[in-house]
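Ticket #4471: structure output looks truncated?

Reporter: J.K.
Steps to reproduce: submitted the chain below (478 residues) through the standard prediction queue, then opened the result file.
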Amino acid sequence: MRLHAGALEGEARASFERARAMPVRVVQIGEGIFLRGFVDWLVHRLNESGAFQGRIAVVNPRPSGAHHIQQWQEQDGLYTVLVRGLRDGRSVQYAEVVTSVARAYDSTRAWEQVLELARDPLVEIAVSNTTELGIRYEPVPRPTADVPPATYPAKLTQFLYERYAALGWQEESRLIVVPCELIDDNGQRLRSMVERHAADWQLGKDFDRWLPARVEFCDTLVDRIVTPYTGDPPLAYEDHLAVTVEPYYLFAIRGSDRLKSLWPFEDVGLNVHYADDIRDFRLQKLRALNGTHTALANLGLMAGLETVLDVMKHPTLSRYVHQLVEEEIVPATEPRVSQPERLRAFARDVLERFQNPYLEHRLRSIAMNAISKARIRLVPTLVDAVERSGDARRLTAAVAAICLAYRPGMEHTAEPDPAAERLRGWWQNDLSASAQAILSDTALWSTDLTQVPGVLEGWVRFVDTALRQGPVQAVASL
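Returned output as attached by the reporter:
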């Protein structure tokens, strides 16, 4: 039996009946799995609490998403979120039918209907997740009402102009744009592209004034692992849109009091934070989550492991990860955040998330672009750790392991990276000469790591042990 409104029973049926009386108040550009397990689920929870009372119209940004739009339509906007993982050391597992999606439109076939939403004064929020590549500027001619432009910023520009043309300067024309793409300053970057398209299309000085006065662009940070549903555990119905999520989630929004009043997530106990500055949230995720991922990936691959969970079950590597986070990353980052206690709590959550038995987070996917990631995620923390305590042996080992993975003959332990050939070219027969050449290359690391006390010696010591005794013994020697 396929999931649809007629298949619902009990509380799921009652939830749907409550929801279908609610108007569409959110337009969502992006039909993929992340928003299903994140914003759509959050809005569902907010509706269930009685604090929002609005539903979502989903629009695919690209033709490739048309099949998902059809699935939304066939399932009456319904789908299942399966929450599986650990919370405070205890196993969590439950399924929930989400009722926040009211309609779904294929932008390539129903663009005029999407523009009708732009003219609707009840629509107050526009959400997006079009991947990191979705927020990009490409010059395009001014579009018509029946054929959408190719890129998301151009689509949004046309959408906003339609709203301006229909509602003018009246209060109901206000709109809040909440992008969820994983790029820094995503709201401000999106705004600059909309302004550029408006100039290209010569939409007029009055629209140029209306845009900053009536449209708010929020910067955000999103954090939750969302994966396709694999059939485990089995559902009592067929659901082509079901997703599996970890219990943990974080939504940080740099937004106005207006958005906070529309979406009072904090008031109903959801882990959503409104702040004037979200750089702390961004830094703690970059270092404690992303940085730790980058540190463990190549070490795990060289030890013959496949997933993050495998690393966390390995006695030597698991101890390394805990010490890396607790003794180096967190202390080095604390002086750079306004609330160190929040950083420490986040780090504890990260270590628990890594032990989720229901997620297969593959090391090879994390190890993609490892050199480029290390430059951003590890090196600044390493420098801060040395400045703070004079010791960053585990961060140094993480950088060394990445370099070792790109040593000629070690290709099986490395994934593609634009800088791979440059790094391989520095390897020589003499280990000390290799270290000097690799670590002093500022094009690789954005700094000369030979000038950071202890790094050169620690790098040579770790690599020498790894080559003679294996990477696990090199980690143990720390």
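Triage note (M.O.): checked the attachment and the full token line is present. The domain at 5-274 is CATH 3.40.50.720 (Rossmann fold).
Status: closed, working as intended.
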